[in-house]
Each structure stands twice: as C-alpha cells, then as structure tokens.
Amino acid sequence: MDLMFVISTPDAGTYLGPLLAACERRGLHWSCFFTNDGVRAVMHDKVLALLPRAARAAVCGDSWKRFMGDADCPIEVGSQTEHSALVAEADKIVSF
C-alpha cells in the first residue's frame, strides 16, 4: 500500500477529497481508516465518491455507532484491529 489516511476529525473531509483525487491521478494505491468523530468525514461528498476506489476503506464500528447512530455505513465497518492491519500494510501514513 503506497499511502494510508487515518481520519479522526470530521473537518478532514474538506482536505481528504482533493488528496484522494490526487492519489488517483498519480496511480497510487491508498487506504483509509476513519475513527472517533472522523467517521463523519465518510459522508463528505468528494470523499464518498472516491472511497470505492480505495484498496481498502474502513471505519471503527464503535465510533460509527457513537457519532452516526443507526445510519448505514457505505464502507467496511471494523475495529482497531483493521486499523492495525492497514498500518502494517502502508508504506506511508497521513493522519488527520
């Protein structure tokens, strides 16, 4: 995995969308893990549009339930175990 994004703040959605688009233009393989109230960034229009192109995209299930309630999650719901696995696969990590 070329690049992993760890998102733990909802404001990251504003910046993440353009960064993911840049990764796509460069042909990079990237993944995302959303935790804490950063799970709200999943629903940012530009982020949501690009997440299907991720090598892997997951949210912390506990965080999703806490901040998004019973809303359907459009990506994989996991745990900090998935976070650890993604970190192990990443060449570089960017955290918001």
Would you give an account of this structure?
The protein has 96 residues and is of the alpha/beta class. Helix content is 41%, strand content 23%. The chain has a single domain (3-95), classed as DsrEFH-like (Hypothetical Protein Ychn, Chain: A, 3-Layer(aba) Sandwich). It is built from 4 helices and 5 strands; from the N terminus they run E-H-E-H-E-H-E-H-E. The mean pLDDT is 96.
Keywords summarizing the entry:
single chain; 96 residues; alpha/beta; Hypothetical Protein Ychn, Chain: A; five-stranded parallel sheet; 5 strands
Query: Mind telling me the C-alpha Rg?
Result: 12 Å
CATH fold category name: Hypothetical Protein Ychn, Chain: A
Q: Report the span from N to C terminus.
A: 18 Å
Corresponding CATH architecture: 3-Layer(aba) Sandwich
Tell me the strand order in the biggest sheet.
4-3-2-1-5
Helix content: 40-55%
SSE sequence, one letter per element: EHEHEHEHE
- Given the C-alpha coordinates, what overall shape results? globular
Q: How many β-strand runs? A: 5
- The low-confidence runs, each spanning 5 or more residues with pLDDT under 50, are none
Helical run tally: 4
Decide which structural class fits the backbone: alpha/beta
Assigned CATH class? Alpha Beta
How much of the sequence lies in strands comes to: 15-25%
Number of domains: 1
According to CATH, the homologous superfamily is DsrEFH-like
Largest sheet: 5 strands, parallel
Mean residue pLDDT: 96
